[in-house]
Design the sequence.
């Protein structure tokens, strides 16, 4: 099971990224792009936590609440990466180079992919790390 862990993480992360990206389009209909990226990230994060618990990582021995809080801390770092890349590309880099093909969608997709490795390591060694017993 552990040998396929990163592959399972990528698949579950891909599904969560689809939730993230898809929900951002819906949120963009009712709120500013910057806030829509954050709201969509929360939808994707919750999906990722559920799928990670079910299919990727072994039970940590912690409560679901504690695991979700730890998962959230790792995702705060990832969310900052996603937001900075998404907004930086859509509002600054793409206009500077004249990129006009769905700039918000492309920027957000790139932003969602950026934290894959840092998130995996954070979840493996912190969010779902086995509780040490005395």
Sequence:
């Amino acid at each position: 099971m552990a040998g396929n862990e990163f592959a399972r993480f990528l698949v579950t992360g891909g599904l969560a990224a689809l939730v993230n990206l898809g929900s951002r389009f819906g949120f963009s209909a009712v709120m500013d792009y910057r806030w829509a990226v954050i709201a969509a990230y929360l939808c994707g994060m919750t999906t990722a936590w559920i799928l990670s618990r079910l299919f990727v990582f072994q039970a940590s021995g912690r409560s679901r609440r504690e695991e979700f809080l730890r998962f959230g801390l790792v995702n705060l770092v990832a969310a900052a990466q996603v937001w900075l890349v998404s907004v930086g590309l859509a509002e600054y880099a793409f206009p500077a180079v004249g990129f006009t093909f769905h700039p918000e969608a492309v920027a957000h997709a790139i932003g969602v992919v950026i934290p894959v490795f840092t998130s995996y390591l954070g979840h493996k060694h912190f969010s779902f790390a086995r509780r040490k017993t005395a």
The helical segments are 5-28, 33-55, 64-97, 103-113, 116-127. DSSP finds five helices and no strands in the chain. Residues 64-97 form the longest helix (34 residues).
